[in-house]
Amino acid sequence: MIATQFVLLTTLLFTFYSASLAFPNIADLVKRQEVEEANSRTGGIPGAVNAPPPPGPPRFKGTKLVHDRAHPWKPLKRGDERGPCPGMNTLASHGYISRDGVASPSEMITAVQEGFNMENKLAIFVTYMAHLMNGNLVTDKLSIGGKTKKTGPNPPAPAHAGGFNVHGTFEGDAGMTRADAFFGDNHSFNQTLFDKFVDFSNRYGDGFYNLTVAGELRFQRLQDSIATNPEFSFKNVRFPTAYAESVFPINFFVDGRKKEKKLDMDSARSFFKDMRFPPDFFRSAMPIGSEGINEVFAMHPFLPGGNVDGKVNNFVVDPTAGDLTKPCVLYDDILNTVKGLYPNPTGLLRRNLIKNLHHFYSGFAAILGEECVEKFPYGQ
Ligand code: HEM
Ligand SMILES: *[C@@H]1O[C@H](CO)[C@@H](O)[C@H](O)[C@H]1NC(C)=O
Ligand SMILES: *[C@@H]1O[C@H](CO)[C@@H](O)[C@H](O)[C@H]1NC(C)=O
Ligand SMILES: CC(=O)N[C@H]1CO[C@H](CO)[C@@H](O)[C@@H]1O
After folding, report:
1. Three-class secondary structure of residue 296 per DSSP
2. What's the rounded mean pLDDT across residues 326-355?
3. Quick check: 300 pLDDT over 50?
4. How many CA atoms lie within 13 Å of 255's alpha carbon, on the beta-carbon side?
5. CB of 261 closer than 8 Å to CB of 211
6. Which distant-in-sequence residues (6+ apart) come within 8 Å of 303 by Cβ?
């Protein structure tokens, strides 16, 4: 019985296969031709792609159930990457991006829009910033955690394709629930720090994380780092990202059906620690980004800088560094980091750098730097 079925199956398969070889349809031919053309354009490097343009905004922009049947939470498997971003970790654990934590910038932008209703230009800005510094620009893949073979062959050094965990690029000091790199683990959920998040929410928010708590905790985390981390640094990219991340829990982790912008501690634990949407979670009621960032900053204004001479309590302001008020300094700093990583790119790498820098600029200019003139370090 089994044998007969097997023969039948192989005969069928063979007939089908040879028929398709003998009479390839037009669609197949066109597809094969496209793949061949793409290969010649990408120089035949395994996994190499021509970087596509970023996705636009989604058509439906309201709230909806995102913890749905199509996106169940699943526990980690061996080799899955997770890192310092509770938003991206959660999207991976629900399958909005590949559950292994490796994805293209386009996939990440689509996921943050779909799962959290992040505003399109902000999603483009931060995703390309991360990709330019921590991604693989030949394969168009980026890890949300550490370095992994899944992003493809190593780019030429000093580029590293090391993922979100690489300290001093995007990941930085004085995070809310992640310790400073100086203390060892810069990306895992830290219970001691989360206890502080809860304590501050009790003290300043009646048990909820709101803008008042965000302002107090942001300032306290800066004071902690000044007092304990001899290598503390807080300027340029780290400056706006830290302030933005302080308001993200309010803008993205509060259920979109709720009127009050305050986050309860069970939901906070669910996102930060378990990388899991609360049961029946609805995303934000409208596309949203860093709303509230200026209020948080204004509660305790702070200047960019760091501890110098390897000493704690030795904070020195760096007047040349970027903060919330000098977007073009920030833009130059990011370009300099990219030029440092890619001093002499050629071929596909160079073409993808040019495209990715332009996509990055389009998001950056819309959010922060309308007055900053676009620069083309690798030509146009
Ligand atoms: C759009 C692409 C995104 C990228 C590339 C990204 C990347 C990152 C990175 C590299 C960090 C670590 C920075 C650090 O604190 O040292 C981070 C932190 C953070 N991200 Fe994201 N993120 C993205 C979107 C989101 C979204 C949509 C949310 C919320 C739903 C989110 C919430 C947060 C929060 C709250 C932190 C701070 C964690 C803490 O301080 O404990 N991110 N993100
Ligand atoms: C958690 O953070 C605290 C405060 O920054 C730090 O002292 C401690 O070493 C961290 N714990 C782990 C396990 O990394
Ligand atoms: C945060 O919550 C506390 C306690 O309920 C309240 O006093 C404060 O006004 C709230 N802050 C904001 C910005 O709503
Ligand atoms: C610069 C630095 O300390 N980076 C660390 C971030 O955390 C990972 C995992 O603990 C370390 O391997 C990196 O060295």
Report:
1. helix
2. 97
3. yes
4. 15
5. yes
6. 317, 323
Q: Give me the chain's average pLDDT, please.
A: 91
**Residue at 147 is within a domain:** yes
pLDDT at position 42: 62
CA dist., res. 142 & res. 162, Å (int) = 8
Dist CA 324 CA 149 (whole Å): 36
Look-up: residue for tokens 């996921």?
111
- The protein residue with its alpha carbon nearest to ligand 4, atom 2, reads 181
Q: Quick check: is 42 in a domain?
A: no
Which stretch of DSSP H or E encloses residue 316? strand 315-317
Taking 90 as the threshold, does the pLDDT of residue 377 lie above it? yes
Q: Is the Cβ–Cβ distance between 90 and 269 less than 8 Å?
A: no
More confident residue, 40 or 239: 239
Residues 6+ apart with CB under 8 A from 1: none
Structural domain boundaries enclosing 119: 60-367
Residue nearest to atom 4 of ligand 3 (CA): 205
CATH number, domain of 246, equals 1.10.489.10
Q: How far apart are CA 242 and CA 215, in angstroms?
A: 11
- Answer whether residue 278 is part of any domain: yes
DSSP bridge partners of 65: 282
Instruction: Give residue-wise pLDDT tens across range 62-116.
Output: 999 999 999 999 999 999 999 999 999 999 999 999 999 999 999 999 999 999 9
Counting the structural domains of the chain, the total is 1
Going from the Cα of 35 to the center of ligand 4, the distance in angstroms, rounded, reads 39
Q: Which residue out of 66, 81, 88, 360 has the highest number of ligand 1 atoms within 8 Å of its CB and is therefore the one to mutate?
A: 88
**24 within some domain:** no
Provide the CA 267 distance to its chain's centre, in angstroms: 21
Centroid of ligand 3 to alpha carbon of 208 (angstroms): 9
Q: What is the mean pLDDT of residues 11-31?
A: 42
- pLDDT of 123 > 70? The answer is yes
Say yes or no: CB of residue 190 within 6 Å of ligand 2: yes
